[in-house]
């Protein structure tokens, strides 16, 4: 029974990921050339991925759908401006908000089986504090 519940959670997370993956604005290719800055595809929130395969799997299943594009005001992955006010509150507050939910983010942010350590690692990655 527990195995079936885990499979159901994975399928639900995959469905949410697929439905949200196209959300958000497309990058404007003219903006990079108009301000003289160029940004590699690897550094955009949509393409940014953890180097640890286990963390990457959790990120894709639970975080990517919203944090890659900023859906519902989610802070974008690796975007220091989005994360600065949150980081000022400290890791304990960020972890509490992740576990209990905040604004549009559901409790545990779609990662029902994640441990506090995994949430901390995900927060560090999302906020650009680690790779």
UniProtKB/TrEMBL annotation:
Residues 27-43 have a biased composition (Low complexity). Residues 27-53 are annotated as: Disordered. Transmembrane segments: none annotated. The keyword Chaperone does not apply. Residues 1-24 form the signal peptide. Keywords: Electron transport, Heme, Iron, Metal-binding, Signal, Transport. Coiled coil: none annotated. It comes from the Bacteria. The keyword Transmembrane does not apply. It holds the Pfam family Cytochrome_CBB3. Residues 55-126 form the Cytochrome c domain. This is Cytochrome c5 family protein. It comes from Zhongshania marina.
């Amino acid at each position: 029974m527990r195995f079936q519940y885990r499979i159901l959670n994975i399928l639900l997370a995959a469905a949410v990921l697929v439905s949200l993956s196209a959300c958000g604005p497309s990058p404007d290719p003219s903006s990079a050339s108009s301000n003289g800055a160029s940004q590699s595809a690897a550094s955009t929130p949509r393409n940014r991925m953890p180097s640890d395969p286990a963390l990457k799997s959790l990120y894709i299943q639970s975080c990517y759908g919203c944090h890659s594009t900023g859906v519902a005001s989610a802070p974008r992955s690796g975007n220091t401006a989005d994360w600065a006010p949150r980081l000022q509150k400290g890791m304990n507050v960020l972890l509490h908000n992740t576990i209990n939910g905040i604004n549009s983010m559901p409790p545990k942010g779609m990662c029902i089986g994640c441990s506090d350590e995994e949430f901390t690692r995900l927060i560090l990655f999302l906020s650009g504090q680690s790779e």
